[in-house]
Specification:
single chain; about 300 residues; alpha+beta; SH3 type barrels; 2 domains; five-stranded antiparallel sheet
Amino acid sequence: MRRLMIFMAALLLVNSAFSQDLLVKRNGEQMRVKVLKITKKKVEFVRQGTELPIYSLPVSDIDYIEYPLGDRDTFGKSKESVEADNLKTTLATPSADKDSDTLKMWHGSVPSPQGDKLVVEVKEPTAHRYAIGDIYDKDGVKGIVTMLYDGGLHGLVMSLDEACLAWSTLPRKKTKNTGANDRHDGKKNMVAIEKYIADNNLSWEDFPAFKWCRDKGEGWFLPSIEELWSAGTMYMGGTRIASNRKMRRYFNESMERAGGTPINGLMFYHSSTEDKDTRFSLYSHMNSEPPYIDSGYKADELFVRAFYKF
């Protein structure tokens, strides 16, 4: 009986030894430990076969930790590190029932205030917030920010380049009442022009300013009169009463650095909005002298900037 008890005790000691974690330091030193806690900055552990005292080492001093089943947590920039990061990402993804059984396979039992259910905090990436005058460059769209919504998460972008084109080259009678009369949303005016072209067997070439914006790609449009006027106001520093030279210089220098063309503050720019007298369209300039908004024949060649909503 005594021999059996000694054998059982020895067996327990062997099992305990094999259940320990192997901690390998960056200097090559190896330690048999039981890992208690891993944070971004340090690893807490006890030495083999003990419960106290609790030691800690900075993550920067550790090469890797190997667990009883052969898996590793690697703290360097090796292939194993990449694989470990991928594993952690997989475990942190809120998919079908990521429970503690998966984590137990790697690190042993994981205590949780909700029993065996694994509680994982998933942090959403911080969305970029823009400011007026920032260069927007995302998903093939590049321009300068002229208007913001939702605390800078969304807004309007104006193209970095410009052209000098007519609103329409058709005879005046053929461009009366196209339906592009929205003062606030240039995208609605683009839809109205598209319908007008289809209904009258015309082409985008008959509307050069609209075509130039459309050719930039999906989502670009000729701005409404209010969108255009607001862009000019931001260019002037937020008011038309006084001219802010620093803001104008900031706009133009930002566009030039991004490969664009500075704004012409003296010339009028076409909007997509028809006047009440539908023989005419509305346009606006980007300086402090009134009138800020005026109208003229659609065949007049004025400057054009494309806009995009993000």
